[in-house]
C-alpha cells in the first residue's frame, strides 16, 4: 500500500480514542398492527484498527445496526459518532460525502455492476468523490495487487468466481481510505475454503494495515478470530467478549 492510502501499521491500546461511538441507539418500525422494536439502547465504542464481529440469531438486529452505523438508515433515537462527528446532525449532502469517504461497505452479495469492468467497479467511490483519473488508477492498481486481482481489471464481475468478486468488493471499499469498513456477512455466499481466504484478507487489513473493521457474521469460527465479539439478542447487546491474542 502507498502513503496516499495511509494504510500504515498502528499500535493499539484501550486508551486509543474511539473512531466510532454508538450511543443509545433505538430502532423501531410501525406496522398496521403494532410498533416493532428492532434495536434497544445499543451502546459501544470501537478504536482504530480494531476488528469487531457482531453475531446473533436471525432477527436479532445485526444488519439493521450495521445499516445505521453506515448511515444507510437512521435510528429512531440515539447517536452515531465517526471520528468525533455526530453523523446524523449532518444535512443530506454532507452525510452522503461522509458515507462515501469515511465508510467502506462490503456486502454478502458483492453489489457489483455486472455491465462495468472490474476496474470501473473499483473506481466508483473515487469517481463519486471527484478524484482524478490518474490518481484513482494508481490507487486501484496498488489495492488490486495487494488483494491478488491485479490481472482482473478488464474482466466483467460475472466472469469471476465468488471469492474474486468479493475481493473486488473489498478493493472498492478501500479506495477512499475509509475510517471504517463495514462487512455484512462477507463470506456468506462463499464455500468454506474461499470464505476463509476472504476473511484472512480482512484480518490482514486490520492487523497489518490498521484498518477498522466491523463484521456481521453467522460463522462462530470466524467471529472467534476477531478482536472482540458483540453478541446481539432480541435487539439488545447480550454481552461483549474480548478475544485473547
From TrEMBL:
One of its GO terms (cellular component) is membrane protein complex. Pfam families: ABC_tran. The keyword ATP-binding applies. The keyword Methyltransferase does not apply. One of its GO terms (molecular function) is ATP binding. SMART domains: AAA. Residues 20-243 form the ABC transporter domain. Keywords: ATP-binding, Nucleotide-binding, Transport. Belongs to the ABC transporter superfamily. This is Uncharacterized ABC transporter ATP-binding protein TM_0352. It comes from Candidatus Nitrosocosmicus franklandianus.
Amino acid at each position: 500500500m502507498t502513503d496516499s492510502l495511509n494504510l500504515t501499521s498502528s499500535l493499539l491500546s484501550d486508551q486509543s480514542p474511539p473512531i466510532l461511538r454508538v450511543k443509545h441507539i433505538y430502532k423501531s418500525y410501525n406496522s398496521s398492527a403494532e410498533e416493532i422494536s428492532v434495536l434497544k439502547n445499543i451502546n459501544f465504542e470501537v478504536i482504530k484498527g480494531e476488528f469487531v464481529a457482531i453475531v446473533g440469531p436471525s432477527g436479532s438486529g445485526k444488519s439493521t445496526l450495521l445499516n445505521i452505523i453506515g448511515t444507510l438508515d437512521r435510528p429512531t433515537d440515539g447517536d452515531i459518532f465517526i471520528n468525533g462527528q455526530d453523523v446524523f446532525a449532518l444535512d443530506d449532502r454532507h452525510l452522503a460525502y461522509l458515507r462515501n469517504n469515511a465508510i467502506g461497505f462490503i456486502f454478502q452479495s458483492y453489489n457489483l455492476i455486472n455491465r462495468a469492468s472490474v476496474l470501473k467497479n473499483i473506481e466508483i467511490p473515487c469517481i463519486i468523490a471527484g478524484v482524478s483519473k490518474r490518481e484513482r488508477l494508481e490507487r486501484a492498481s496498488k489495492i488490486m495487487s495487494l488483494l491478488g486481482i491485479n490481472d482482473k481489471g478488464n474482466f466483467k464481475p460475472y466472469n469471476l468466481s465468488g471469492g474474486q468478486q468479493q475481493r473486488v468488493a473489498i478493493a472498492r471499499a478501500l479506495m477512499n481510505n475509509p475510517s471504517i469498513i463495514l462487512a455484512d456477512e462477507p463470506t456468506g455466499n462463499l464455500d468454506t475454503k474461499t470464505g476463509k481466504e476472504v476473511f484472512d484478507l480482512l484480518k490482514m487489513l486490520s492487523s497489518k494495515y490498521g484498518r477498522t473493521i466491523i463484521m456481521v457474521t453467522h460463522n462462530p469460527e470466524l467471529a472467534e478470530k476477531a478482536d472482540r465479539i458483540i453478541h446481539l439478542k432480541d435487539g439488545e447487546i447480550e454481552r461483549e467478549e474480548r478475544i485473547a491474542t
